[in-house]
Specification:
alpha/beta, about 230 residues, 5-stranded parallel beta sheet
């Protein structure tokens, strides 16, 4: 599975380098924003929110990312614990206040990290259902009334080191991650591989699902290097 995922990421990189039609530039370039602050919305579930992270207001990955990006950026945390990508899930992101607030803010950049809660038995209805709602969420953010066009990166979710609360690695590895890769490859949407970045560090996951502050720092660094030149 790792070979397949890395191969797909390589294809995405080639498409970007080739300047394929409608492919968003793979970096945020400050000159596009006329000197104003660049708005970055971190959309996700409890891992984005910072559940399990000590002093999450300063140590959750969006907060750390904001520090890395510096004063030319404003990064907001729109993570909602328990959120799913699928609309038919037990906690669809679509119905949350965070979804509404992120939309109203009209961000320049969206970092989308959902899928962990979709692996629960009551939520996973197969790849077609997941891919349909991922496509819909991409449409939502990419079509915001905003110039320059809102840029979206989709994250491969953090690894699952043990089944907890119904969240399980098999569905993540064989369902969610291939779905994300297929959709993003077809749509030429850039991917950030948080799964690969965090897999060598089970020690960063005290409950086997949520990364601690050290894991959040890895996430922030991985996102930072993906979106900045």
């Amino acid at each position: 599975m790792k070979v397949t995922r890395r191969s797909a990421l390589f294809v995405l990189a080639v498409l970007a380098a080739a300047g394929c039609a409608r492919f968003e530039p793979p970096h945020v370039r400050m000159e596009e924003y006329d000197g104003r602050k660049i708005r970055v919305a971190c959309v996700g579930d409890s891992i984005t929110y910072g559940a399990g992270v000590d002093n999450r207001e300063t140590n959750a990955y969006p907060a750390v990312l904001g520090g890395l990006l510096g004063s030319s950026f404003e990064v907001r945390n729109y993570g909602h614990s328990g959120a799913t990508m699928v609309k038919a899930g037990d906690g669809p992101y679509w119905t949350t206040a965070e979804f509404k607030d992120a939309t109203t803010w009209v961000p320049d950049v969206v970092i989308l990290k959902l899928g962990t809660n979709d692996t629960k038995p009551q939520n996973w209805k197969g790849r077609p259902a997941f891919e349909q709602d991922l496509n819909a969420l991409l449409d939502h953010f990419l079509n915001l009334p905003h110039k320059p066009r809102t840029k979206v990166w989709v994250c491969l979710p953090a690894p699952v080191f043990a089944t907890q609360w119904g969240i399980n690695a098999k569905v993540l590895d064989e369902g969610v991650i291939p779905s994300v890769m297929d959709v993003c490859q077809k749509r030429k949407v850039p991917v950030i591989d948080l799964n690969d970045a965090l897999s060598p560090h089970p020690e960063f996951f005290p409950d086997k699902i949520h990364p601690n502050a050290a894991g959040a720092k890895v996430m922030a660094l991985t996102v930072y290097h993906a979106i900045r030149p």
